[in-house]
Amino acid sequence: MLWTPVPPALTLGEGEEDRTWEFLAVVGSSQAEAQACLTEALRLQAGGSLYTAHAQAWAQLWAGCGLDVVGPLALRQALRGSLYYLFSALPQPGIPGYICHGLSPGGLSNGSREECYWGHVFWDQDLWMFPNVLMFHPEAARALLEYRIRTLAGALDNARNLGYQGAKFAWESAGSGLEVCPEDIYGTQELHINGAVVLAFQLYYHSTQDLQLFQEAGGWDVVHAVAEFWCSRVEWSPGEEKYHLRGVMPPDEYHSGVNNSVYTNVLVQNSLRFAAALAQDLGQPVPERWLVVADKIKVPFDLKHNFHPEFDGYEPGEEVKQADVVLLGYPVPFSLSPHVRRKNLEIYEAVTSPQGPAMTWSMFAVGWMELKDPRRAWGLLEKSFANITEPFKVSLAPASAHTLTMPASRLGPWVAGVGAQRGGLQRSHSCGNSHLTLGPSGNRGSGLRRACVLGVPVLTALPLQVWTENADRSGAVNFLTGMGGFLQAVLFGFTGLRITRAGVPFDPMCPAGVSGVCISGISYQGNTLDFSFCEDSVTIEIRDHAGPWAPPLEAELWPSQARLPLPPGHKVSFPRSAGRIQRSLLQEAEAASCSPRTSC
After folding, report:
1. Helix axes 360-370, 480-488, angle to 10 degrees
2. What would the pLDDT profile of 365-389 be if each residue is shown by its tens digit?
3. Dihedral in degrees, nearest 10, Cα atoms 102, 108, 112, 117
4. Which one is predicted more confidently, 128 or 11?
């Protein structure tokens, strides 16, 4: 990290209404990179073009993607701010040779009292942040997976050190992939990190069909190694005739050393079945034990109460720290009847700690949206807002002239600027035609203004803030994990979008207070599409088609089974219903039947 000096105080002279100071801070993956970025920022600053370069970079990014709703301003601001912070922590799309070192829960922040995890990478990256990144920026998603590939050697050593085969990804991972968690219990027991890593590879494979990553760049090695770890870690129980996974800690860190965490065991199933399917696609042999363990691992279920106990011996009423069992169904693929899904949500909602981390209530909201209970879904989503706090604020209003910016034209390293005015300090993040203005309430960026985001006009008012890990304001700041869960609640919860082998199912529903959703720039198998819906209709438009390799798409509607072609450049609208965006087999067959000598 390199920076320019900041004085202990900023003072306005007598009679001055405002003044602007500029300070630069750059974070890079090496001294050379940081120095190069600081040099670039100083050059832009000296020429008076730092703000312009910054705004142009963000304008280019926002032109390609967005997520907005017709609904409460606070929700819209939180969505825009969350996307901004998440994208700020990612490599800028298109930068050649950029090496991504993963996403830490606090992003680039590093707070006092060891609250921001030293920049270490957890399951937060793979389960909570990755799905959002994948939908909009598959290049950045691949960079995150490449981090896991580069740290596979460390994961192999972790497994060997524990006495097992295959790979055990570190609960806290840094440069080498070796376990760097300061407390052994988490590193040895939170095995579910492996399942989250493989799930990220699975979603990427279904969304991109990027065979090169798996055949040549090491993706298959990761999936294979995790499958081998699971098979060496389980134990056969002759009494139950099931495989058991003993001595683990589930996501609920209030309980350790438990047997058969239902969340972890379902991830074991999912990892092994994806590994087998991927092996077939790649022409690799499928070890028989993979599918045997997947079929015979214990998945705890309480027939009397008709719900999934968190682990063997869990009793209803025991407090849990955070979302755990409720992650089954989404984001973890697992078939549940509506009645069991409801029971899981009801039982664990009542006992989940109100002081738990910020991403928890978003997943409860997704569950209730699956069950078509918009009132309950909205009430739980609102709980997330308790984690949005001072000191910075985010507004959709255009920034006033005196604000300065962060980051600079490159989205990887950050370049910070600070302005001062009567009323306090202010930071601003330009987002092209719309700006994220950070500053205290009552500043010039917080007045009512007419703006338009994704074609939805609204009066902007008081801005929102950044996220803390816990509702009591403790923990990591700025908490990307909480933002990731919150974004998924809208991106996947409101829409019903899921990434599967067969396509992208959708089942849109407007929660209470929201009458429409607009998503632009969804990436799927070489196509870029917009998806929007309101209370009575759905509209899909293929905006861009990467080339001949990108398959033609169609929308299959349910339950009618009607199939609507989705030709590039044409908006296709239909009455709101569930369905699936999928490859158009008919159009692919027609294209394949055309030869250079045949007109089609």
Report:
1. 10
2. 999 999 999 999 999 999 887 788 7
3. -10
4. 128
Q: Are 147 and 103 contacting, i.e. CB atoms less than 8 angstroms apart?
A: no
Cα–Cα distance measured from residue 435 to residue 79, given in angstroms and rounded to the nearest whole number = 13
Beta-carbon count within 10 A of 507 CB: 18
Instruction: Tell me which DSSP letter residue 325 carries.
Output: G
Least confident of 24-33, 70-79, 235-244, 245-254: 24-33
Among 473, 436, 493, 488, which residue's Cα sits nearest to residue 124?
A: 488
Q: What is the pTM of this model?
A: 0.87
**Cα gap 423→81, rounded to integer Å:** 22
Shortest CA distance to 431 belongs to which of 389, 396, 466, 477?
396
Single out the catalytic residue among 115, 253, 349, 382: 253
d(CA 18, CA 419): 8
Q: How many CB atoms lie within 10 A of CB 117?
A: 21
CA–CA separation, 538 vs 557, rounded Å?
A: 11
Instruction: Cite the beta strand spans of 333-470 per DSSP E.
Output: 388-394, 418-421, 424-431, 434-438, 449-453, 456-460, 464-467
Confidence of residue 489 (pLDDT cuts 50, 70, 90): very high
Has 253 been annotated as catalytic? yes
Token pair of 265, please? 């065991």
Contact 443, 423 (CB under 8 A): yes
Cβ-Cβ contacts under 8 Å for 143 (sequence gap 6 or more): 90, 91, 98, 99, 100
Three-state helix/strand/coil letters over 11-50: CCCCCCCEEEECCCEECCCCHHHHHHHHHHHHHHHHCCCH
| Best CA proximity match to 80, nearest among 569, 432, 449 | 432
Return the amino acid letter for 249.
Answer: M
What does the pLDDT look like over 433-465, one tens digit per residue? 222 222 222 222 222 222 223 344 333 333 446
pLDDT value, residue 444? 27
Calculate helix-pair angle for 192-208, 262-282, nearest 10 degrees. 40
Q: Residue range 157-167: average pLDDT?
A: 98
Is the CB of residue 229 less than 8 Å from the CB of residue 275? no
The predicted structure's pLDDT at residue 588: 61
The mean pLDDT value for 571-581 works out to 97
